[in-house]
Amino acid sequence: MVVSIPDDAPAGDLGLDDGRREPTMTLTGWRQFVDAPPASFDLLPGRRWAALSARDKEAYDEARLNYHSEMIIVATSTVREVARQGRLLTLLNRREISARRGLIVSGQQTTGKTTALKQLGRTHELMVRRRYPARLADRIPVVYVTTPPKGSPRKLAMEFARFLGLPPVSRGYNTTDIADAVCQVMLQARVDLVLVDELHNLNLATAAGEDMSDHLKYFTEHLPATFAYAGIDLERRLFTGIRGKQIAGRCVLVSTGAYPCDAEWKALIATLETALRLHRHEPGTLTRSARYLHRRTGGMIGSLSHLVRAAAQMAILEGEEAITRKLLDTIPVDHAAESRQHGAA
User: Fold this and answer.
1) Both ends of the chain: CA-CA distance in Å?
2) How far apart are CA 94 and CA 290, in angstroms?
3) What is the pLDDT of residues 280-310, one digit of tens each?
4) In what order do the strands lie in the sheet with 251-255?
5) 115 to each of 1, 105, 200, how far by Cα in Å?
6) How far is it, in rounded angstroms, from Cα 71 to Cα 304?
7) Crossing angle of helices 207-222/153-164, nearest 10°?
8) Given 3-state DSSP classes, what are the helix, strand and coil percentages for the chain, each rounded to the nearest 5?
9) Which residues contact 166 (CB under 8 A, 6 or more apart)?
10) Cα(160)–Cα(251) distance, rounded to whole angstroms?
11) CB within 8 A of 245, min separation 6: which ones?
């Protein structure tokens, strides 16, 4: 979402819609995600801001609330490493005809796994578009699905079918029929990167989980594509037994976790702080509170982003226009981060 209000904009032009997009688990939603420009917003000069009518100020603040709900994607070391390994694997697999190597992004919740996975897909798709501009109409470079909870091979195949926009499948079609149709469409669309999120929903300790694992293997063997997965603690959940060892032997692992309170942590905070669009916020306030923010969030980038964005929105709603320690104390973080903080105390 891009919001830029020039100094001479008419008062009535300050409104905008909420910019909602479809889920990225559909082709339309994924393309909206890929095509969306970086979030931006230009603050009005102080005098013009103070002179806004009540109606225009409400529209202006609503635009800022929307902006702070999205803000920017912080290029963490995890995002960079996933992009690096994913790029390398897509090159290595380009002409591979046997077992292709995959990528697994594993770690605790709110450590940036999904963000890194989606950014890998977005970067790859934009690169393919630049390379083959004349063939975009019939090409789908990236497919993004989530592993269905308590799923089955049929449910997994339906996730792929739903992303591709295939018509509803009648009960007469078995799992293999659906999988074959999905593979045929993905081959014709020249899909070369498949992203599978929430892989922790695949439980190899159950018969259904084993069947779904075998079905994923079926897709990897029938598609000339690189598969990248993300999920919570996948080393412990997946890398056991014959199937788990087979997965481990074919995939590169990128582990995510909490950031220590070091130079990178402070740099992440500084990046988020420069993205704030508040009229009275003192630059450097958040950076100087690095240890406090680390204690509140446990060093989790997802929790940090939530805390800063929520505080910015509350600063707008309450008219403070600045993020202070007092305000941050009133903003709850996710339960996991709060539990870690109380446990450390």
Assistant:
1) 40
2) 43
3) 999 999 999 999 999 999 999 999 999 999 9
4) 142-146, 193-197, 226-232, 102-107, 251-255
5) 17, 11, 16
6) 13
7) 40
8) 55, 10, 35
9) 181, 182, 185
10) 21
11) 239
The CA-atom distances, in angstroms, between 94 and each of 41, 115, 243 are 40, 24, 25
Residue type, 7: D
CA distances 198 to 117, 206, 233, 265, Å, are 11, 17, 11, 26
Contact 26, 159 (CB under 8 A): no
HSE at residue 270, side-chain half, CA atoms within 13 A, is 8
Looking at residue 2, its pLDDT comes to 35
Q: Distance (Å, rounded) from C-alpha 66 to C-alpha 15?
A: 11
**Integer angstrom CA distances of residue 139 from 143, 192, 194, 263:** 11, 10, 14, 42
More confident residue, 257 or 3: 257
Decide: 295 and 325 in contact? Cβ < 8 Å.
no
Q: CB-side exposure of 155: number of CA atoms within 13 Å? A: 14
- Phi, psi torsion values for 55, nearest 5 degrees: -65, -45
DSSP E strand boundaries for the chain: 2-4, 40-42, 102-107, 142-146, 193-197, 226-232, 251-255
- Distance separating alpha carbons of residues 200 and 252, to the nearest angstrom: 17
Q: Are 301 and 318 in contact (CB under 8 A)?
A: no
- Residue 207 contacts by C-beta under 8 Å, 6 or more apart in sequence? none
CA dihedral 162, 168, 172, 176 (to 10 degrees): -20
**Amino acid symbol at 218:** Y
> How far is Cα 286 from Cα 119, in angstroms, rounded to an integer?
26
d(CA 125, CA 119): 10
* CA dist., res. 134 & res. 20, Å (int): 29
pLDDT in tens, 95-126: 877 678 999 999 999 999 999 999 999 999 99
